[in-house]
Please model this.
Amino acid sequence: MIASKLKRFVLSIAILTTSLMADSLFTGTSLIGIEGSYGAMNSELSDTTNPAAYTQDSTDLASIGLKIGSESENYRVFLSGRYYADMRDKYEYIATYGGELQYLFHLSEKNNIFIGASAGIMNVKFAIPAESFSRTLSDPYIGGDIGMNFHMRKFLDFELGVRILSVQAVNVRSNIKYRLNSISNAYATLIYKWKTD
Model:
């Protein structure tokens, strides 16, 4: 069921991206970016039979990502995938797959500011200490980002930004409830640009 939801989501984003790229609004500028980030993931752990047994946690994360897309004079759209590594080895894997739409505010010929929205699927696998089994989450997220692009060359941008993803995913097993709330991070991206017919 989760796999079919993910397939439908990816297909919808692919159709949207293809339509936007083909639209006359776009100037035919294609984009591919490699991204690195550092941030934190916030979560909660509680015993459903004992309300006093409640803890909050924040885990430092580093990530690497790939995003492909297109841009017009005022808009950018991306399909993206990111893999996160936590600094405490608490999680076996954390990955996101989704799409982003950004609006560009042009400051000069050398740079612009962007603000955007994103949505996608987050997959997480982890084990809670003292449990003999692993837990998994595969849930949608929504988010937003803001940042600045620096036009280093006609074909190359350097991007700095801040992103927040809201997940609100819950896993309950053996009366222990794990809740993943959000990920916030700062990131940098090198974006290669080229014109297409």
